[in-house]
Amino acid sequence: QLSGSAEAELLATSFTYGRYLLASASRPGLPPATLQGLWNAQLEAPWSSNYTVNINLEMNHWAAGIAHVPAAAAALDQYVAMLRESGRETAHRLYGADGWVVHHNSDPWGYTDPVRGEPSWATWPMGGLWLERELTSLAGFSGRSAEEIARERFPAVREAVAFALGLLHESADGHLATFPSTSPENRWLTADGTAVSLTEGAGMDRWLLRENARQLLDAAALLDRTQDPVVQRAASALELVPGPRIGADGRALEWHRDGLEEAEPHHRHVSHLGFLYPGEDVPEPRHEQAAARALEARGDEASGWSLVWKAALWARLRRADRAQSPPELYLRPAEPADGTERSGLYPNLFSAHPPFQIDGNLGIVAALAECLLQSHRGEIELLPAVPPLLAEGSVRGLRARPGIAVDMAWKGGALTALTLRATGPGALGTHRVRCGEATVEVELTDRQPVEVPCPI
To answer: How far apart (Å, rounded) are the C-alpha atoms in residues 63 and 363?
Structure first.
């Protein structure tokens, strides 16, 4: 619940609506939510109502962990299991590589080959890494032990990393870089002004490879699998694959070198900033500053799903001042009186790309939750980025890692009530809770709710 203005109440409705749409469109036994959800009124829907794997399928399920829609996480897991089967053959046939691959577009039958089209989106082989990263992330909200999750996830992450290792080659600066590589769905300009797509070691590739490799190494340590050959290759590669790189203008680099001009400076994709969100590795302050500069350069105006991503990125930066604008744009009418089309909401509250794509509706749940609760830094952080639209309200049942249910209320951006509850054995123990500069240690000895005095 949010109060204080009609816009705040509509935002709260959008949160509840998004959870409902996710729960109804992503159910085990069915394919997970497509670009339009579950149903479509058109025989041939926009984008064939398929899965765009370079952002939309993942964004559809960002909320499944933090906003607790476990059946949606299970539906995604079931679908990715099918992609792995077909993706192994594709990886071997097209790349001569181990592991499995899916490109930017798939369908309910598990298509994993590239589709015909512009290389800026068609030539992108990193879908398996992104999906495995998402499934590992969702498992982290489950309340299960780290060892149990590691046993479940190790084989799949190992396969995804094995494929990515096959794409690496030594670049001119002595680092390892993926090739072929693109930054979906953007292009850069050559010296003669030609817009081109291909690069090596795009920023998105680097964060996906590094985070999956780190997850693989963590799981291997828990399972005593550090001598596994793929694990050892991943450990060696991790030292040679650069993390976020910063250009002379202070922005996080999207491409293979500094000084390249974007064909579309305000492009809707911010894939190279994924290390900040949805990534879970804690970036250095200089990398956070570089991400902020890149976001400022992109601007706020965007398609519906891109507004959601930008809101989540500003939340991760704890920038309540900048987390206000994307939700405001998300709430505006998508069909203004002058007859034009833009991002915003249609009268039935569907989110406009335009036209309608459900990822905005589902992604706004995750973005708002990230403003209220973060747990990727090893502590439970409450109200890290509360803009004026969210200044007064309450929430029940959010999930913090490693599986802690959070009920809280706040007024004027200040915490007024807090209850924590462990949802499984992996969440028992002592946890540090932060709100602003204040911290408190909370011990969860069983699965009963624990009321924490406020202010903490």
So the answer is: 7
E runs forming strands in 279-392:
344-345, 351-352, 373-374, 380-382
pLDDT of residue 175: 95
CA dist., res. 243 & res. 200, Å (int): 14
Structural tokens at position 54: 């370079």
Percent of the chain topping pLDDT 70: 100
> How far from 332 is each of 121, 181, 317, 319, 326, CA to CA, in Å?
29, 36, 24, 22, 10
Q: Is the dihedral of CA 397, 400, 402, 404 positive or negative?
A: negative
> Please, which pLDDT band fits residue 106 given cuts at 50, 70 and 90?
very high
Region 407-424 average pLDDT:
97
Using a cut of 0.85, tell me whether the model's pTM lies above it: yes
Percentage of the chain beyond pLDDT 90 is 95
Residues in Cβ contact with 292 at an 8 Å cutoff, skipping those fewer than 6 apart = 317, 319
**How many CB atoms neighbour CB 332 within 10 A?**
13
What pLDDT is stored for residue 42 in this prediction?
87
Neighbouring-strand partners of residue 34: 37
**CA dist., res. 1 & res. 8, Å (int):** 9
Instruction: Say which residue the tokens 């990398």 belong to.
Output: 287
Amino acid at 99: G
Token couple for 318: 């704890």
> What is the phi/psi pair of residue 129, to 5°?
-65, -40
Point out the least confidently predicted range of 47-51, 78-82, 246-250, 385-389. 47-51
Rounded CA gap, 424 and 446, in Å? 9
Please report how many Cα atoms fall inside a 13 Å half-sphere around the Cα of residue 415, on the Cβ side: 26
**Three-class DSSP category at 414:** strand
